[in-house]
Amino acid sequence: IVLHSLNGVLTVLIIIGMGAFLVTPGLV
């Protein structure tokens, strides 16, 4: 359960990170 939860958190962080990486150049 802990590993699954950690994997889910990492997945969300990666998605948010990629989203921020794609959006930031447009703001700059």
From TrEMBL:
Transmembrane as UniProt keyword: yes
Keywords from the UniProt entry: Membrane, Transmembrane, Transmembrane helix
Transmembrane domains' residue ranges: 6-27
Protein's UniProt name: Uncharacterized protein
Organism: gut metagenome
